[in-house]
Structures are given as C-alpha cells and as structure tokens.
Amino acid sequence: MVPEREDNIYGNSGEALQIHVSFVIPVYNNASSLLPLTDRITQAVNRTGHTFSIIFVDDGSCDGSWETIGRLAQHGRVQGFRLARNNGQHSAVLFGLFQSRAPVTIVMDADLQDRPEAIEILIKNYLNTGDDVIFAGRIGSYQSPFRMWTSNVYRRLLLAKLTGLPRGAGMYFLITRTACDKILALRMTRRPMVIGMIAAAGLTCSSYPCARQNRQHGKSGYTSLKRMRSAVNMLHCALFLKDGKKPSTVNYLDSIRVSECTSH
After folding, report:
1. Where is the Glycosyltransferase 2-like domain (predicted)?
2. CATH 3.40.470.10, domain 20-243+253-261, yes or no
C-alpha cells in the first residue's frame, strides 16, 4: 500500500506552520553511532520547534545495528526496516523515501560525519527559498588529502558541469514530498543513483556550506574503486534519464525485500 502523503506546510496567512520532518537514514554496520545520532537529531530539531520522525533502513548490517534500531524504535519516533540483503546505499535511501509520509524529508548518513546540527540550516533555507532540494554542501578536511582531491575533481568537473547540480550536492539533503514523488516515478535500467535522479528530474536545487566531521565510528565502505564506479553510475543515471532514452518498465523498488520491520 502506498503511504499516505502530507504536503501543505503553510497556513491561510501564508506563514509557515509547524512542519513534520522525516529523516531517512541508510544503515550499514553503524551500531556504535546510532544512539548519539538519534540524540543529536532530537536536539537539533527541538531547537527549530518542528516535529520529526526517523526511518532507519538497515541495508544488510552484521554488527548489531538492527538490534540497536529495535531498541530506539521503542521510543515511538523511530521506525526501522531491515532489508533481506545488501542493496546499496542509494537503493536503501529510495526505499526510505517511499516509506516517508512527511511534507519534507532529510536524507543523511548514519556515521555522524554529516553533522545533525546542519539540520537547522536545511530547514531554515527551505522555508526561505521553497526549493525542491536543499543540499548540505560538505566543507572542511574530513578525509585523506587524496580522497579530498578526488572529491573536488568529481564535484567541480563532473557533478556541476555535466548535471547542472550545485557543487555541494551530496547525500545530505532536504527534499520536498512533491520532488520525492518525481524521482520515485523514474524508471531505471541499472542500479539507481539518487543524485543522478535528482538531476534528471529537473528539480530546483540549492546548496549551503556545512562543515563535515572526520569519521569517528567505523570505517568507510567506499574504496577508491567503488567511489569511481559510483561517480560513473551517477553520471550515467543523470544523463540517461534526462535524455529520455529507453525508459525501463521495471520498478527497482519491487526488487527490494524487507525481512523485518519495527512496529510504528
């Protein structure tokens, strides 16, 4: 069954109402960071005066992440889905976006490199601009010099030039319900890439600089080879869909199987 959606965030006077923000967080072996992440999200959203819920999508973890999600879900604001196998970060995010019912959703990583304190910046700029997608542009030296260099090349030469997205576009962003429905309606012929789908959907996007932390929990699952493959797949996704070539009739969400979910 398709989740019921909420869209209206403005009252009759045109002033923003208290809005409900849903967080979609893909999880892969992040057991040690989930509790502090949830605490910091709670503190950040409470400062805005809005309400929130969290959707954790466990993408095949084997470190106790699912058990931690189950404990967090006892507090009511957290819902968890455990996928039957590892589908990849982008598929996990898209599955979470499908489950979200909120007028706006924030996507972020679970490892605390994406600072929850930037949530206030995303919400404020969304209410000021009304853009479809607001990215938290990553700044700071949060990884090795070589990885920083390759990231800059990717963002300057590939991302901005070929897709038209802001240089700060990444997997920490706020997206509206309408925009979310547009990217979920796209059909893919290969593994989906969220950033490429945002580019292909022709959405209004902006980016605001937000400091990123060094990794404090676990280690990155993205090797240099995986990063290169991810960049190629993202560009293929953006350019392929934008050109409207050979649209697939297959919905990639149909291939995702859930083995467990928490009550909500």
Report:
1. 22-182
2. no
